[in-house]
Amino acid sequence: FIYQLVKDLVMAEQHKLIYPIKHFRDFLENDIRLDGRSFDKYRPIGVNIESFQHSLGSSATKIGNSNILCGIRAELAKPRASTPLAGYIVPNVDMSFTSFSKSAATSNNQNVAEILECFIYRILNESHCLKLEDLCIHPGKLVWCLYIDIIGLEVDGGVFDASILACASALSTLKLPKVTYDEKSGKIEIGEEMKELHLDIFPVVSTYSIFDNVVLVDPTYREESISNAVFHLGVHEDTVGLFHKSGGVPISVKEIQHSIKNAVKREQEISSLLRSLKSNK
Prior knowledge:
alpha+beta; Ribosomal Protein S5, domain 2; four-stranded antiparallel beta sheet; about 30% helix; about 35% strand; elongated
């Protein structure tokens, strides 16, 4: 009996490796995914804020098997010529320590990091979650530059979702020292009093994949890699602020509307979670 059981397990593993798409399709035809979830079920989320003692704002997030850390540094700088009344942010993504899932072993870490940096910069700026004018110390002379450092420890799908969640939760804890600037002398004084910056919203991104006209929420890396298309939705309340799609398969209006409702519900749940974490701190 044990011999036969081991033999069946080996054959099942070989079938999965040789025919990955057929193996995946066999599961979907029975209305279940490879990890046992239903099509519209998210993986568990874990968030820990103020994770690092030497950061002005920090967090550690986990979505399924994806683990992302975020720490925020701040430096005094001259404002950009185009925005003399506002500070600015600089995302830095490091995937050199990342342990990808087995199915993602051939991924290009550097390419993932570059895409994430652009994605995070776009989301944080276009969502207006943080008023960059609040980072201005003296118009045209001195502002705060926030370096948002993202470190991937493990990636198994949902890296965009987990990274934005890490940034939002870290920014929600950000405190900056009070700074005074003397325009005549150019003297800068940094006080001991710390001021917390206000976040207008918590940006939330939800990822979906499409396989054989079936929409799967919060896909794992394996599901992303063999899907016909992957798309990301960023919403706030009932407003869609981001829609990004890769893959040539069209999406029906009905599928988009259902996904938006799903994303709105998730945004409410995550925003409530972050507010609860912050109030408990």
